[in-house]
Amino acid sequence: MNPSKPVILLIEDDQQTRRFLKTSLGHKGWRIIEAGDGKTGLSMLKNDKPDLVVLDLGLPDMDGISVTKRLRQLSDIPVLILSARSQEQNKIMALDAGADDYLTKPFGAGELNSRLQALLRRINRGYPVSELFQTGQLKVDLAARKVFINNQEVNITPIEFRLLSILVRQAGLVATHRQMLTEVWGAEHINDQHYLRIYMGQLRHKLEINPARPRYLLTEIGVGYRLAVHEA
Amino acid sequence: MNPSKPVILLIEDDQQTRRFLKTSLGHKGWRIIEAGDGKTGLSMLKNDKPDLVVLDLGLPDMDGISVTKRLRQLSDIPVLILSARSQEQNKIMALDAGADDYLTKPFGAGELNSRLQALLRRINRGYPVSELFQTGQLKVDLAARKVFINNQEVNITPIEFRLLSILVRQAGLVATHRQMLTEVWGAEHINDQHYLRIYMGQLRHKLEINPARPRYLLTEIGVGYRLAVHEA
DNA sequence: GGGCTTGATGACATTTAGGTGACAAACCGT
DNA sequence: ACGGTTTGTCACCTAAATGTCATCAAGCCC
Questions:
Q1: Is the CB of residue B80 less than 8 Å from the CB of residue B53?
Q2: Chain B contact present for A218, CB below 8 A
Q3: Residue A161 — pLDDT band, cuts 50, 70, 90?
Q4: Which residue's alpha carbon is at the shortest distance from the C1' of C6?
Q5: Mean pLDDT of B6-33
Q6: Residues of A in Cβ contact (< 8 Å) with B125
Q7: Mean pLDDT lowest for which of A26-35, A71-80, B73-82?
Q8: Taking CB atoms and an 8 Å limit, are A176 and B117 in contact across chains?
Q9: Per-residue confidence (pLDDT) for residue B27, from 0 to 100
Q10: What is the residue-wise DSSP string for B16-84?
Q11: Which of B92, B95, B125 comes nearest A76 by C-beta?
């Protein structure tokens, strides 16, 4: 995404913490963009495409758990939570809502930096960004969040895109119900296979010539779905 | 690797912590394998292919940072560090050595569980790899759940696939009735050999040129079935 | 505020796979 | 060759898995 300096979206209302992070992280080679509340944070996520999110749990407009869940619906970006609350229950809730790490105040800039680096390492070992995937007449640009069928761009909703990107990342292999449900809706929904039927149906409707006889989005009964690999 | 239960390699010398983790994590759906020192831990990493590593920094034989670095050389597996030391400098060193997370003792089993889940979420977004098994004109890709005969893909139902994978995993050797029945239908069906006849019949129908004279799926009368190994 | 898009949910239709019994064929020792 | 045993095949029924349609609530963009 940003080869030179990784971009952190900092969602934090407290001025003091913001200044502290801005200088300390800035010196360690990150670029910081800031939001003072949950709403602006979410919209900046869409517009500015940061590499990481650092989120304070105590925001003025929304509670932190909801922001986390919403972030997860919108993107797979790594999220590190900052919070004054150190009770185990708070940490569990945040992590289960989709956060990747949880750090309690007060904390040192060095530790935060190392934890962010660790997250970035992980994500960079994942799928390569900004690569065009193609199978048959279907093209998917994961980085740009764009999908083409017969060179015509198709409108894709966030959930549809996340399902599709799971399939693209392991094209030819089966994505299990379990995997798709946990990655998109969270571990507590592994039984809601209904969701998959609905959204896979919508994807087929948009991408397949004949949704009843899919060429790309294949069903593996009892297991999951598979993106078929075809020649161009 | 293990689709049902993720496997944790626990490298920890303290007996008490080991027992604590074994019971508390075991109840949350993980499978735990244990090593008492760094050397065994590293060798178990190679042999047992766990999904995650939980590593105590204070081991008898090697210092924790070296173990972490060595782990990183060997694999991309997620590593969570446990340690009694809570100084920032220790955390930074461990994280920079390649660890993904760092948790200080004492800690709650719930938090550890959620942190491990978070790591697993991340890693599951990588690429699975597939291996091809081949005998004669029959090819089986277990990871991709695909079966080919004469380079033509064959549709396989879940039960058929499970039977076939048992045979593939021990190609050339006999899979007993008992083994197949317990693995696919559960131990309470060891007498329902009828099931095997039906589904082996269906597999032959799909895979054999002449199902009456099978070249691949051979019957071992009174014992079980065997997948014949041929040259390509 | 009002139209539009998206996500969630329930009811229902459709497709596919699993289980069952009857019977045929192959095998094995005598 | 014979009878009992083991294995294979067929057709059918049922249950489970999947797909579709319609609807409602919430958020978003003018």
A1: yes
A2: no
A3: very high
A4: A157
A5: 91
A6: 76, 126-127, 166, 169, 183
A7: A71-80
A8: no
A9: 79
A10: HHHHHHHHHHHTTT-EEEEESSHHHHHHHHHHH--SEEEEESB-SSSBHHHHHHHHHHH----EEEEES
A11: B125
The enclosing H or E element of B139 equals: strand B138-141
Using the CA of B224, which nucleotide's C1' is the nearest one? D7
The per-residue pLDDT for A128 is 43
> pLDDT value at position A213?
93
β-bridge pairing B217-220 and A152-154: unpaired
Interface A–B counts its CB contacts (< 8 A) at: 94
By Cβ distance, the residue of B110, B117, B143 closest to A173 is B143
Q: What is the pLDDT of residues A50-101, one digit of tens each?
A: 899 999 998 877 888 888 988 887 777 899 999 999 999 999 999 988 899 9
Per-domain residue ranges for chain A? 7-125, 132-227
Instruction: Residue B98: list chain A partners with CB under 8 A.
Output: 121
Q: Is B66 helix (H, G, I), strand (E, B) or coil?
A: helix
Architecture field, domain B7-125: 3-Layer(aba) Sandwich (3.40)
* Domain covering B132-227, topology: Arc Repressor Mutant, subunit A (1.10.10)
What pLDDT does A32 receive? Answer: 94
**Confidence (pTM):** 0.69
Q: Give pLDDT, residue B124.
A: 62
Are B95 and A108 inside 8 Å of each other by CB? no
Residue type, B82: L
Q: What is the pLDDT of residues B188-224, one digit of tens each?
A: 899 999 999 999 999 999 999 998 899 999 999 999 9
Could you tell me the two tokens for A95?
């992590």
Average pLDDT, chain A: 89
B232 touches strand D (CB under 7 A): no
A134–chain B nearest CA distance, Å:
17
SS3 content of chain B, % helix, strand, coil (to 5): 40, 20, 35
Cβ atoms of A204 and A214 within 8 Å: the answer is yes
A101 and B118 within 8 Å at the Cβ level: the answer is: yes
> Which of residues 49 to 68 on A have a Cβ less than 7 angstroms from any strand D atom?
none
The number of C-alpha atoms within 13 Å of B68 and in the hemisphere containing its C-beta is 27
Beta strands at A79-83 and A132-135: parallel, antiparallel or unpaired: unpaired
